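Thread: assembly with ligand

MN 10:42: here's the input set. Chains plus the small molecule as SMILES. Want everything predicted jointly, not piecewise.
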Amino acid sequence: MADKSPSSQPPRTTAAVEDYLERIRELIQKKGYARVVDIAAELKISQASVTTMIQRLDAEGLVKYEKYRGMVLTTAGEEVAKRIAHRHELLTNFLRQFGIDETVIAHDVEGMEHHVSPETFSAIEALSRYLTANPTVVAKIKKDL
Amino acid sequence: MADKSPSSQPPRTTAAVEDYLERIRELIQKKGYARVVDIAAELKISQASVTTMIQRLDAEGLVKYEKYRGMVLTTAGEEVAKRIAHRHELLTNFLRQFGIDETVIAHDVEGMEHHVSPETFSAIEALSRYLTANPTVVAKIKKDL
Ligand SMILES: [Mn+2]
Ligand SMILES: [Mn+2]
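BT 11:07: finished. Tokens for the full assembly:
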């Protein structure tokens, strides 16, 4: 699997950077564009803070930002955002199998997704696949909750 | 399970606070006391930053700190530290079943442990118990990694 080779790993990013890129990607997919005002609303922080962070992401080559024209993700930014979206989806599907409350899942996944290395991702992926294919196993585990 | 009742949940704490309490508890268990210099070494930050944080933890009633005499955890601080230690242990044992590298496990667990709610904890606990009791299932999942 490509994920397993250290050389294929994108640059290290903080949880805050990953959350920004994740939100920008979602906004672009949903609305066709991402504006500072929308990101501020999604992340519940001030527009001034968002602008500062977007300028930093631009300097780091993760976002291309032009005032009044909006922003796009660079190839590197898109790669990070996609990786986080994958982890988000994986962890959500994993926890859903146990019937955990959706609000709790959303909260836990938003935090956990930033700390899942490729190895752990692969393990949870294989585990999730097994559980999906074996509902009687899941039923047994849920009875023991 | 006591964990499931919202009223039994300790006060909300940040990942940084949880890491401090976790380290202080470990130092006291290992050496009988926790000093600023040791915490600074463990968390790889300056003694000045540690002192500032310890004063904050003291003000929040999580630590009792007396300059030159050291610090102890309050009942509330001990409760938070124990909760994190439990999550740390649970996640470590869970990931170990898949033969993930110990360095990777340590890294992922240090981050993930701060984002596991009681519901998710219970699910992973039941799952881990099932996997421990069913090594053939684990072998199948590992083959599919
Ligand atoms: Mn997410
Ligand atoms: Mn820990």
